[in-house]
Amino acid sequence: MSLEVLSVASEIYPVIKTGGLADVAGALPGALEPAGVRMKVLLPGYPSVLNQVEAGAPVAVFDDLLGVRAELRPATSRGLDLLILDAPDLFAREGGPYLAANGYDHADNWRRFAALSLAGAKIAQGAVEGYRPDILHAHDWQAALAPVYLRFCGERSVKTVLTIHNLAFQGNFSASIFPELGLPEEAFSIDGVEFFGNVGFLKGGIFASDRVTTVSPTYAREILTEDGGMGLGGLLRMRGDAVCGIINGIDTAAWDPAGDPHLASHFDRKSLKKRDVNRNALIEEMGLEPDDGPIVAIVSRLTWQKGLDVVAEMAEAILDKGIRLVVEGTGDAQIEGAFQKLAVRHRGRIGVHIGYDEALSHRIQGGADAILIPSRFEPCGLTQLYGLRYGCIPMVTRVGGLADTVIDANYAALEAKCATGIIFEEASEASVLTAMDRLLDIYARPKLWRSMQQTAMQSDVSWTTSAKLYADLYRDMTKDDQE
To answer: Which CDD domains match (predicted)?
Structure first.
């Protein structure tokens, strides 16, 4: 039996992307299709979205969606079945999806994404003629009020799933906004959206959803702790078996070294010698000195969570070991500035690109020897999955999805030829330098290094298994309706 799922997301690749949420939202529909699940995605009508897609005539009109007029317009993009929430008062503005042109949050983000959530709930209740989903799947705090609206303002027949991509971003706002959300008074309570006297979008979604998923099994366990729960651990523990972790996959068609249009040379695990062409091209592009030492890459948001403050402070100690660094990313101004100064001071030893360039990220994965991900916490992470796919050995902390997807190159794993990366314990100078020493030891043995690259490239990083788990979850939630 086929299932209809409405996904509500604030971004989706390849239409609009700021992070991993977009990759997941964009990959799931195609991955679920073979499992008999049809997924339609509700997406805000940012200018960049409406400029990219050819949206059709409105299929529903909301004259008063939290005080604004909005239309639902269908569109397709690279196989994605979209519903665009065209609400110019909310989304037609300069800046990105969440930040204004000045770099600060849009002051009305609470209204913008509450409206997105409310539209999702109305669609689930039949706002679009001829369409009635079995499941509403909300992603992160931006869509987390959709299950809340269904619980407090509508029918409960539509089952709801909330996926937490990063618990650090919770959508907490002043209690003063509550009267404008269109929720009944009883929703502002501990059994609703009230969170330490404020309105908590994610908190409300965790309470109201039938199931809560995270993007890796280890992260699902970590957020049940006091430290990992970031104020929500008690509620998540209370939800019990309703909380589970399903590891992310990647789009293995978009990320395929055997046919990647961004690479200078295509290769696979049986033709790794061809990878050297990409390595040489990366050296030239990033202005690195040619030598025999390994190239370690960072492709990341440059933030405290990612542990990159530590790397910026100790980068010279890494360079002193004969390792060259390549950095691509954007984030905290202080960390950005630190890497830019390093690039000037150590020209030829470190190449830095501030910003995000999708094509460059492919070239880095295809040319660097290893990818460093020293996160303090990491719900899943996709960069290490790209690294595995491209033979760019992941060096990761033992947290969240990093621990779930990388097999450490300890003695037993190397002997068994199952090692795929290097795992270290924490984002500290001592741990990172020890990992670098381990990298140098393996890299100095070319036969062992090539074998480890080949093993990494054999890893199943696709959505196949995870999509089946989501399909099983949906069917388990709706089994009573199907009987």
So the answer is: GT5_Glycogen_synthase_DULL1-like
Report CA-CA distances (Å) from 109 to 98, 120, 444: 7, 17, 51
Say yes or no: do domains 3-249+464-482 and 272-457 share a fold: yes
CA distance 378 to 18: 16
Please tell me the total number of residues recorded for the chain in this structure. 483
pLDDT tens, 150-160? 999 876 789 99
Mean pLDDT of the residues in the chain: 96
| 435: amino acid identity, one letter | A
Q: What is the maximum alpha-carbon separation in the chain?
A: 68
Identify the bridge partners of residue 135 per DSSP, sorted by sequence position.
5, 159
**pLDDT tens-digit map of 166-176:** 999 999 999 99
Residue range 455-469, pLDDT digits in tens:
999 999 999 999 999
Q: Which two tokens stand for residue 123?
A: 């669609």
Q: CA 469 to CA 457: how far, in whole Å?
A: 23
CB count in 10 Å sphere of residue 103: 9
Q: Count of CB atoms within 10 A of residue 323's CB? A: 22
Spatial contact of 305 and 421, defined as CB atoms under 8 Å apart:
no
The conformation of residue 288, written as its DSSP 8-state character, comes to P
Threshold 0.90, pTM exceeds: yes
> What are the boundaries of each domain within the chain?
3-249+464-482, 272-457
Six token digits for residue 13: 């690749």
Q: Which CATH superfamily is domain 3-249+464-482 in?
A: Glycogen Phosphorylase B; (3.40.50.2000)
CB contact at 8 A, 419 and 452 = yes
Annotated binding-site ranges: 17
Q: Using one digit for the tens of pLDDT, what is the confidence trace for 192-240?
A: 999 999 999 999 999 999 999 999 999 999 999 999 999 999 999 999 9
Q: Which residue has the higher pLDDT, 167 or 481?
A: 167
Residue 462, C-beta contacts closer than 8 angstroms, at least 6 positions apart: 31, 249, 250, 252
Please give the annotated binding residues for ADP-alpha-D-glucose, written as ranges.
17
∠ CA(165), CA(168), CA(169), 5° rounding? 75
Structure token digits, residue 25: 């939202």
